[in-house]
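Hey team,

Sharing the DUF1772 domain-containing protein run so nobody has to redo it. Sequence (158 residues) first:
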Amino acid sequence: MKTIPSLLLIVAAIATALNAGVFYAFSSFVMAGLGRIPPEQGANAMNGINVTAVMAPFMILFMGATLLCLGLAGWSLFSFAALDSKLILAASLIYVIGCFGVTMMFNVPLNNQLAAAPPTEIVAVWQTYLRDWVLWNHVRTILPTLSALLYIIVLIRR
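Structure output:
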């Protein structure tokens, strides 16, 4: 029984770390690069990225990690007295709320707002978008990193 959860924890640690890495790239240089070009071009490029992001390669990783974390959270409740179970629950909830939840509550609405912006308002929308989207993306970078770290701690403790 211990082998299956360990394998799932390894997959969860890798998946949450990979998601953190994707978001780190956006926080550290992608958005800064888009902010250096004319607003219309930056907004158009970001709209293209947003369309591409909802395709299989990223969505399998993003949604797969979310589903795995939800499963591990449920599994952890069956032996909640153990420290490892508490760490697994914390790692899982941190990812689900801090990555999936933040994405759905903040980044996706901002993406939709950018996509719907009329050309006459794109400069103002883009400036606000850059500020707000990057702020929430920092959250999506830090919390999945913490989640991965907690899964690794549990694996080391085993």
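The chain has one domain: 3-157.

Ping me if you want the raw files.
A.
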